[in-house]
Amino acid sequence: MTIKINGTNTVANPSITGTDTDTGLVYGTGEVSVVTDGTERLKVDSSGKVGIGTSSPIGKLTIADTTANTIWMTGRSADDTSSISFRNNADSAYIARIAADNSGALQFRGASSEAMRIDSSGRLLVGTSSNTDDYRFQLASSSYKGALFTRHGSDGVEVALGSARGTQGSKTALNNNDYGGLVTFKGYDGSNYQRLAWIGGVCDGQSPASGDSPGRLVFSTTADGASSPTERMRINSAGNILFNFNGSTATGASFFADGTAASPGLGFWADGSSDTGIFRPGSNILGFTTGATEAMRIDSSGRVGIGTSSPSQKLHVVASSGVNNCVRAELSGTATYQTDAGYFVNTDTGTGSARGIYTSGTDFGVYSNSGVNFFGGNVGIGNLTPGHALEVHDASSGVIVAKQTTNNGGFNTFVGEDSSGNTKFYVTHNGRVGASGGIIFGSDTAAANALDDYEEGTWIPGLYVNSGTHPTLTITSNYSSYTKVGKLVTFSADFVATISSVGSGSGLRISLPFVPSVSVGRTVYSGGPQGRASTGLTLPSYEMSWFYYTDGARLYQESANGVETNLSPSYINSGGGKRFNIGGFYYVD
What we know:
Number of strands: 46
Number of domains: 6
Distance between the termini: 180 Å
Radius of gyration: 62 Å
Strand content: 35-45%
């Protein structure tokens, strides 16, 4: 072919051509272009940059084309692999290579091994050439940490996970409870990667809408023996945190570090510090702290201590010196308690009455629906200002009731003692009343007028002579009894007397249960001292009377003409045993 150097040095007529005058080289100032068919195809500019399809290259090689196949490479015959290789400056070693194999994958290789590929399905595989679980991006490494995303700016780097219903070309909104994205953690079981846990972003309460897309974070873990994770915690769209509860059922328990009073295991940060919350002081003990100081604890026995770390009762409250209101319980409303050192108050706003316990100065009180019980040196029940050691006011019956809950009698329900501890007054459970100083009736307080004795009982009368030798006798069938009220004795002598030796005495008398008064001896009391003596069932032919003496009751017989004579001991001896039935009353000193 003839080479011509006679063109006009234009694209249409290059300066150096062959037979075809519009194909050749065009020279410019410090540049040269390759022209075919009247069109510039390649240019080398004055800086040595090469442009293909462009007259203004911006790099050492710039290729521009309006068709899809800008660079076409044919694979080698052995494996249909075609590649672009990068070598060092000395052309002595490979630096990197980009290759396309016959599987349709595009490989990115380093100096000696593959670093990344895009497989025929469009998956980006970094550090591995094998697909796992069909993720579009897969990263594997035995020596590197994984991935780092860095943004240089105050707003930080953003890694976004997004989901939509519909198709990629025709997306639609998610529904309530649809997942917007998941971060899944997996573990290899020897043959497959199994889900260990995941964190998901979920539509919460409604479908996303323009400017209103409430969501929640869900934290799930896989239980032993399970094949998929179970929700353990969620943060809902309102910012509430639900531990081991998915909104309807419990899914486990929550555990926290022990912590201390200054740094509790479960703390609250609203006051800008971590020294308020709940901690575990010891085995099976729960402590509550405020401002780094323990305020309350529940010990291993279930005892609650407030102001003490060693409660001895179910509720043990200790107030620091100078701290008022040791214990207080109050409903809404205005209570009628005074400024106090410690109290329980339950205010009934409907009726305006207060019920509870309070203290005021040195006084102590108990409020109730029926009145106020007040303790201020004196004790008042139903009376706010008692004027006595114990003062009880009540409009109903049974103002004071005392009940013995064990045994049925003989125990003192109430006892009054003097300053030396001696019992002066008592009431027993079976209704007996005892008063060592006597009982006063009405307003008469004279000691001489006090009823200081009452007694009921039985006695065995004796038969004696007024003078001489007493007879020997036996008393049988005795039914004698007496009642003593103060100085007055009322008696009934009912017995049978059998004599075995009359003796040598004269007169006859019976012994009484108490010694008669000296001042009223030998006096007959009208209507009282009379009786009968009988033998068997036969009444005697005379009346029998008696008089008081200090040595007993002397017996007389009264004849039909009204003459009284001493009853002789021979009366008892004659006709066998005699039955005596004598009654009356007398006084004692």
